[in-house]
Amino acid sequence: MNKFEPLLTILKQNPRWNGHIHGQSHWHRVVANGHTLADHTPGVDREVVELFGLLHDCKRENDGIDPEHGFRAAQYAKSIRKLLPITDIQFEILHHALANHTDEIHNSDPTIGACYDADRLDLGRVGVTPKPHKLNTEFGKALAAKMPRG
Predict the structure, then answer these.
(1) Cα–Cα 20 to 30 A to 67, which of 32, 52, 55, 74?
(2) Going from the N-terminus, what domains does the chain have, and what CATH number goes with each?
(3) What's the whole-model pTM score?
(4) 16-20, 24-28, 78-82, 135-139 — which is least confidently predicted?
């Protein structure tokens, strides 16, 4: 059993779960991107990046402009803290990444930077090619530089 299975059970009840743009398929791509970035970036906490991928868009109200969705996701994470098998330090990093992933472009913490990059590397689903200078990790920048420009 995946240690995040209780969280997945709750998230499957979320109205955004089957959303085309910000639903579970995007969440899982962000998790996969985060794992790839963690493999190539020293100091990235894989558990935090995985939780970020699952939670970062779970409180969106729509697929358009929703500037408060990161804050709502961070508040939601607080409300289910007991289901998250991570330390308090890991939770603080996760909380910051969730709350700030739409407004903060760069962060010197490798885990937070990988969270942001993992999400931004999936912008192609909405026709946007990520810009390397808006990414945090060297590997993320290299991946973005190889993406076709449209």
Answers:
(1) 32
(2) 5-146 (1.10.3210.10)
(3) 0.93
(4) 16-20
First to last CA, the chain: 41
Q: How far is CA 18 from CA 12, 15, 63, in A?
A: 8, 7, 12
CA dihedral 94, 98, 104, 105 (to 10 degrees): 80
DSSP 129: P
Helix-then-strand count for the chain, H and E: 7, 0
Q: What is the CA radius of gyration of the chain?
A: 14
Q: Which amino acid is at 79?
A: S
140 contact partners, CB below 8 Å, separation of at least 6: 37, 41, 113, 114, 117, 118, 120, 121, 130, 132
CA 35 distance to own-chain centroid:
11
pLDDT 10s digits, 14-69: 777 777 788 789 999 999 999 999 999 999 999 999 999 999 999 999 888 999 99
